[in-house]
Amino acid sequence: MEPEVKSDIEKLIGYSVEFAENLLLDSGEYYPFGSKISSSGKFTPVSFFEDEEYPESQKIINELTSAFEEAFNKNKVRAYSIAYDVRVQNEKYNLPKDAILISIKHENVEGKLIYYYPYKFVNKKKLEFLEPWGEHEI
Q1: How does DSSP classify residue 15?
Q2: Residue 4: Cβ within 10 Å count
Q3: N or C, which end of the chain is more exposed by having fewer CB within 10 Å?
Q4: Alpha-carbon distance 90 to 53, whole Å?
C-alpha cells in the first residue's frame, strides 16, 4: 500500500474511532458520521443533520454516502469514511458484540475497506476495545 494511501486510511480510522468513543462515553450512543480527505489532502469531519428529531441511521448513512460519492466522482475528494454502530458476531465472537464500523473508500484502492472496532463498556467513563479487524469488499 502506498504511503499516502496508508496515511489517509490511518487519519480516517483514527478520527472515527476517537470521535465515536467520545460520543459513546458522553451519551452512550451516536448517529452515523463521516470524514473526508480532499484531492489536495485536507481532512474534514462531516456530519449530517436532518429536520427529524430522531432520524433513522440508515437514512443518515444513505445521505452521507450520496454526498461523498458525488464529490468522489467529481474528483473533489480522494477518500472518505462513514462510521456507525453495529453488532458483530463471527468465529472469534460467538456472542454479538457492539462495534464501530468504519467504511472507507479511497481513489487508489479498488472497492471498499471495512474496519470493525468491537468494544465494551468497562464503566460509564471507559470503553475497552477488543481486537479490531478489516475486510476488503471489491
Answers
A1: H
A2: 14
A3: C
A4: 34
